[in-house]
Design goal:
Elements (H helix, E strand, L loop, with lengths): L1 E6 L4 E10 L6 E11 L1 H4 L7 H23 L6 E7 L3 H18 L3 E5 H7 L8 E3 L7 E6 L4 E8 L2 E7 L5 H11 L6 H15 L4 E2 L2 E2 L17 H14 L4 H30 L3 E5 L6 H10 L4 E3 L11 H13 L19
Parallel strand pairs: 1-4, 4-5, 7-12, 12-13
Antiparallel strand pairs: 1-2, 2-3, 3-6, 7-8, 8-9, 10-11
């Protein structure tokens, strides 16, 4: 089955064509073509994604990317179109959905909506090129989803059957990274910039205080009895610390970045460990944009040595259409070829599992 997949949930425009085989028992995928257009430089002056600009760029990029993947794949017929329907920025989501509906009507092929977060879970089985497949793993698995808009702990009872057992009550981890980066005067996207400074700080072994001020930050909700997260208070603590210190030199920025990253990762690890113990988990999936964070990966591997750990390839940790196509194939088979009416498919910015 040849699937064309479309991703426009935020500031990445992506279109892929996948050759999907094997059914639900042994699903395998070959990437025939994949094209993505980043909007980072466009949104950088705003310090974050500006929805109206994202919508405009998606509308401009979609036909260009479609032409590229069709030319590269050299296929004559598409069997199914998969498109992200949520969660995400609704103006951005609508551009992909409208484009997908037009193609489905023009080519007379079925259209299936895909949950973006389910895509991140499946992304751990993908690679940037060539063939890949979904192996048998011990279920239920646990997925730690960490991105700019989401921080969730999700039980994977089976593919397509998920249960959220914990989520952020305010800011997501990636969102907190970006906001703290702005406080420190770092460029957008802020997450990688925070990590660069933190890595330098660890190598230089900075003092516990800078300019006479303690740098200990809180670990929000670390010892709550649930699996939920909260990073808004941590972000505020950084703000108060910066105001107290005043002018920040490079050493101080490095130390704050390190302590902030330590606080986020320590909290994520602690909650994940509690969930693993409670549910007897043997497979941990860590996915989403923040899963590319080197320190998070190091700490996950250090803390969970006795279970199977799955991360996406670095380039597949961020938003991409490959993961949308993979989910689309499996969802289509699970539904035995039944798809919703195209007119019923809508953008759902707050879509949940």
């Amino acid at each position: 089955m040849k699937i064309l997949s479309i991703e426009t949930s935020c500031d990445e425009t992506g279109i892929s064509i996948l050759d999907c085989k094997g059914g639900l028992k042994k699903p395998s995928f070959e990437i025939l073509a994949n094209s993505i257009s980043s909007q980072v430089k466009i949104h950088a002056p705003y310090g974050g994604v500006f929805p109206a600009l994202a919508k405009r760029e998606h509308i401009k990029n979609l036909p260009i990317l479609l032409e590229k993947v069709l030319a590269k794949s050299k296929i004559k017929k598409i069997n199914l179109i998969a498109v992200t329907s949520g969660p995400g920025l609704e103006p951005a989501l609508w551009t992909g959905i409208v484009f997908a509906k037009e193609l489905a009507l023009k080519w007379n092929v079925p259209l299936i909506p895909v949950n973006h977060m389910e895509g991140h879970i499946i992304s751990v089985f993908g690679k940037n090129k060539g063939e890949f497949s979904i192996p048998k793993i011990s279920l239920p698995a646990l997925s730690l989803l960490v991105s700019g808009g989401h921080t969730e702990l999700v039980l994977v009872n089976n593919w397509g059957k998920y249960k959220v057992i914990g989520e952020t009550l305010d800011d997501a981890a990636g969102e907190a990274f970006d906001k703290v980066a702005r406080m420190l005067g770092l460029p957008y996207p802020g997450g990688p910039e925070i990590s660069k400074l933190a890595e330098k700080a660890r190598q230089g072994m900075p003092l516990a205080t800078c300019q006479g001020h303690p740098l200990a930050l809180p670990r929000p909700m670390k010892y709550s009895k649930d699996f939920d997260f909260s990073f808004s208070g941590l972000k505020t603590a950084v703000l108060y610390l910066i105001k107290k210190i005043g002018l920040l030199d490079e050493k101080t920025k490095m130390a704050i970045a390190m302590e902030f990253e330590n606080a986020v990762v320590e909290t994520l690890i602690h909650k994940t460990k509690k969930a693993i113990e409670k549910y007897g988990i043997q497979t941990l999936i860590v996915a989403g944009g923040v899963s590319a964070n080197k320190y998070l990966r190091t700490e996950v591997k250090r803390n969970f040595k006795n279970i199977k750990i799955l991360f996406p390839e670095q380039k597949l940790s961020t938003d991409n259409s490959i993961m949308i196509g993979m989910v689309g194939y499996m969802k289509y088979l699970k539904n035995k070829g039944k798809v919703p009416r195209p007119s019923s498919i809508k953008a759902e910015g707050n879509l949940h599992f």
